[in-house]
UniProtKB/TrEMBL annotation:
Gene3D superfamilies: Alanine racemase, D-serine dehydratase-like domain
Keyword Cell cycle on entry: no
Keyword set, alphabetical order: Lyase
Domain of life: Bacteria
Coiled coil regions, renumbered to chain: none
One annotated GO molecular function: D-serine ammonia-lyase activity
Species: Streptomyces acidicola
Homology family: Belongs to the DSD1 family.
Protein's UniProt keywords contain Lyase: yes
GO term, biological process aspect, one: D-serine catabolic process
Domain D-serine dehydratase-like: 263-368
The protein's name: DSD1 family PLP-dependent enzyme
Length: 389
């Protein structure tokens, strides 16, 4: 863990200007260990998706500081992690021809950077670029396991043709799928079924390719809900997940984690009151929290986030119910009385979607909830995020 201290003027969460993002390293480590243990039990490689935290310092928690296989969502992430010594990277967004020079530059540095595709056109330009560069760009075929975003169905007529185009150029690495609809699997049984369907789809696609004489070395599956629900990953080689490092209110609403597992929060300050409306106003709007309302369709709508005191204790019934760009509105549920929170009071907001909230910030102030919080949690370090594409 990088223990680079924050500026001397910011020693506790009471010091920096608000709003700012906070990571509880104790909770993050506990979440990391939980999924690592599951992956070991299931007999697969864990390839964390770093798109949530976008932080080499947080990724370093996963393997005791030793670079491990990772998944990225941008080439900026791939480049930053390569600079940090990571050499086994999967770029899990459909590849565009204009991005291949950056991919090839990383390959020339000795980084195994896999790309993702789901069409003959993409396979053709990856194959052509590989021949022109004189080195193979490893590629995975995206499989659509649940009607979410891109990919081919496992029984799609074009699957084998795409595999053959890649294989003839030495580029075929395997197949990859992501059970995106698992974020709407509201019961443990639904999540288990989503995990089974995810595995079955990926394995079926791999078997079709192998039956056509094409080699498939990687069969990659994963989402945070299915990674925690899978019971059998026979035929799968690796498991991906990203949100699990922080978790969030969506994951808690699905029962994937407990509320006390949420490692990311945003510190805001009370800047006003509108008692005639039952409002407490803070300086943390959607620019600090994001516009994500991912819990709106769940049994309990958490608005824009749940409210904690600065030490991390929940304030009963208080929710961030509305937001404008730089203002957050806190209200009470069920007719409860507003707590007495004077102007200047600092609070922490738990987010709906950790990925979206983290993306609003340039870095994290790091605390450890196992340490004393009097007068406020001490800042252990400040970790920068990777930005851009």
């Amino acid at each position: 863990m990088n223990t680079t201290p924050p500026p001397a003027s910011a020693t506790t969460l009471a010091d920096p200007d608000t709003p700012f993002a906070v990571v509880d390293v104790h909770k993050a480590l506990r979440n990391i260990e939980r999924l690592a243990t599951r992956a070991d039990r299931l007999g697969v490689t864990l390839r964390p998706h770093v798109k949530t935290a976008k932080s080499p310092d947080i990724a370093a928690l996963m393997h005791g500081g030793t670079p491990c296989p990772v998944t990225v969502s941008t080439l900026a992430e791939a480049e930053a992690f390569a600079d940090g010594g990571y050499t086994d990277i999967t770029y899990a967004v459909g590849i565009d021809a204009h991005k291949l020079p950056r991919v090839i530059a990383l390959l020339r540095r000795g980084v195994t950077l896999r790309v993702l595709l789901d069409s003959r056109e993409q396979a053709a330009f990856v194959a052509d670029a590989s021949r022109e560069a004189g080195l193979a760009v490893p590629a995975q075929i995206e499989i659509d396991c649940d009607g979410h975003r891109g990919g081919l169905k496992a029984d799609a007529p074009g699957l084998v043709d795409i595999g053959r185009i890649l294989h003839e150029a030495g580029c075929l690495d395997g197949v990859l799928t992501h059970a995106g609809e698992s974020y709407f699997a509201y019961t443990p049984e639904d999540q288990r079924l989503a995990a089974k369907n995810e595995r079955d789809s990926a394995v079926a696609a791999a078997e079709r390719l192998r039956a056509a004489g094409l080699p498939v070395s990687t069969v990659s599956v994963g989402s945070t809900p299915t990674a925690h629900a899978a019971e059998d990953l026979t035929g799968v080689t690796e498991l991906r997940a990203g949100n699990y490092v922080f978790f969030d209110l969506v994951m808690a609403g699905l029962g994937v984690c407990r509320m006390e597992d949420l490692a990311l929060s945003v510190v805001v300050t009370v800047i006003g009151h509108r008692p005639e409306y039952g409002w407490i106003v803070t300086d943390g709007g959607w620019m600090a929290m994001s516009r994500d309302r991912g819990t709106a369709g769940q049994a309990q709508d958490q608005g824009y986030g749940l409210v904690l005191d600065l030490a991390g204790n929940p304030i009963p019934n208080l929710v961030m119910s509305a937001a404008s760009q730089e203002h957050g509105t806190l209200t009470c549920r069920d007719g409860a009385d507003l707590p007495n929170l004077p102007v200047g009071t600092r609070l922490r907001i738990l987010p709906n979607h950790a990925c979206a909230t983290a993306a609003q910030h340039r870095g994290y102030h790091v605390i450890d909830s196992t340490r004393p919080t009097d007068p406020a949690p001490a800042i252990q370090a400040h970790w920068e995020r990777i930005t851009g594409w």
